[in-house]
Amino acid sequence: MSEKRGIRMLAVSGCLGYGFTETAFDAGLESGIDFIACDAGSMDPGPWYLGAGKPYVSEQALRRDLEIMLAGARRIDVPVIIGSAGGGGATPHVAILERLIRGIAAERGLHFKLAVISSVPDRDLVAERLKQDRIRALENVPPLTSETLEQTDVMVAMMGAEPLQAALRGGADVVLAGRCSDSALFAAIPLMQGYPAGPAWHLGKTIECGGAIVRPKIGQDCVIGHLDDDGFEVEPGHPDKRCTPESVAAHTLYENPSPYDFIEPSGVVDTRDATYTALDDRRVRVTGSQYNRAEKYTVKLEGVRCVGHRSIMIAGIRDSRLIEEIHSFCDAMNDRVVTEARNLGIADSDWTLTIRRYGLDGVLGPLEPRRSEPGHELGLVLDVVGRTEEIAASVLAKARYIGMHTEFKGRLSSSGNLAMPFSPSDISVGSAWEFSLWHAMELDDPCEIFPITFSEV
Amino acid sequence: MPRLKDVATTVRSKNAGAFLATIDVIFKDQTDFERFRNSDLFGAEKLETLLHCEKGAVAVIFYDKANAVKITFPRAASSGSLTDSDIYGAQYHALIMDLPL
Predict the structure, then answer these.
(1) What is the reported pLDDT for A370?
(2) What is the spatial distance between Cα A420 and Cα A404, in angstroms, rounded to a whole number?
(3) Which of A43, A48, A56, A140 would best serve as a mutation to test chain B binding (most B beta carbons within 10 A)?
(4) Which end of chain B is more exposed for a tag (fewer CB within 10 A), N or C?
């Protein structure tokens, strides 16, 4: 009986910079790996990182993970694919990773062909597609207007498998991609080799989060995926850890609106008929994953616009009378701040103040069912976003004074309402952003907006 | 008084993208899953009220393979927007974990 063909891949970590153990990595390599891949980004940490061009992990953590990955990959001469580089995957994010990669290569004497794939679409192209009605809002997102598009300061498009494949066909040993479908990082090579799409994509989806499917769940770590023509298998890199049918099946729930369907640029992965079987106490086999090709190839656009500058103040309240009156107190504060800002000549539309009340409804806000039940202590965060840094600072300073000295019913504490932990009390946080683009755009060709630059390192 | 948190092995929430949030409840075995899946806990109307959502806006999916119930709903404020208080959507599940069985 001829041996069944298979392809073996190593998911280094759920996110580059989150770390992994060298034990797991080495064990993974030792088991015979055809390629290594790692997701390096996400929009989970919110809009600021995309807008500001910064990663949400430290460069030190990135360097540590990259060094082990690159050195290992070159040692056994297999491709490395990194996607959503630098977190947001836009130009400055990718540049940071490219700099780190070149630095490591120089230090360690590593030589390879590098492909860098951009994911920042041309504005005119996006505007044109909008006019052609080829851009659709995702769930709960307002339809895109040309005004919103113009206001969007930074945007990326999430590439599928094809640009990665083009880079590999061009001879790349290391593929550094901007914003990219996490699963595509792992499905790209198997699809090139003709493995069935359902299992290839489902495997990618399963292992791209790295240690999420591994027990015990202590931090991030490597996961090994093995794909054949009938299904796939997963196991942890670390010999002391395990994957179980429950941990693998439960993963399809994670971060998804549906546990069954995953939308990729080229189609939808359907896991309804997937079965999860334990091969032993640490390995799981999955069969039955299906894939339905989409009629139109669409990529997800993500974009952010700057809404001003944020400055905050944190203070504690312990006065029992004030806590009793906290709702009317905050109303009074809000009214007084409006008056004082106007007295400074600042337009109402140039700032917002959000009074966050931890210990009451700071976490759940309007959803909090217990907002009439404060405890003995309250943590107040005065959150000002101003059109400029100066406006934010001015309004916050007024809000601070008002918070400290505003009267309320039953007040005995005539010398001050707030316990400030810090001097200075007012903290400039930085630019404030919001997601202005979260839409699907049709492409005529899967690679048309993802140019690749090759170089020898 | 027994509450959902006393019988579930997982009650968690996270964003499903920046504009939706999703709550997962995982029961310890099929028996508990079958026992509670049809309970009042996962009724559309009750969840719409709890989550301040319009009629039809909350999707409840029963995932037999993991003995899990998934509740997906629109975020009132997108992740990281001005008045948002939970960038990752990590604490929405608190709304259901204390519900009496």
Answers:
(1) 96
(2) 10
(3) A140
(4) N
